[in-house]
Task: structure prediction
Amino acid sequence: MSSRTPLAVVRPLPSGSSCLQEPASEEGWPPPPHDPRERELALVVAGWEVRLFGGRKFDYFVTHGFWHLQLWHPEARVSILTPSRLTRGLYEAYPIANWKAQAPDYDKLATLLGGLVEAKLPERVAVLRLELALVAEVVRGRGGAAS
Result:
């Protein structure tokens, strides 16, 4: 049985920590790994941009088990990362309560976002198809580590 809670909120370290600083940009972009400018736009589904790494980051992330996709809603300014080693196998959303929040599956993610974000998450089947085609199949085809 897992010791993880169904909706785990990732809390920042104390304010004295140098590894958790506000984004340097005054434009208000999310901090990495949630900054959509780090990835390339692949397609748009139900108002959410599907974003992926290209180039050297693609190779590194796929072969090391970090490969995932980002769903970015430009109007709501919400980022969702799909499960990978980067997020300890959980979905991760930002900003939730001014930080990150994690959910173990799509249904818990939808519940989490439902009360806090105006942008409606794409349907479950659409997200799962994207994960299969753009994450699982890519990792399998490249011989990378499973996310």
Remarks:
- Strands lie at 8-10, 40-45, 48-52, 70-73, 78-81, 91-96, 99-103.
- DSSP finds three helices and seven strands in the chain.
- Residues 124-142 form the longest helix (19 residues).
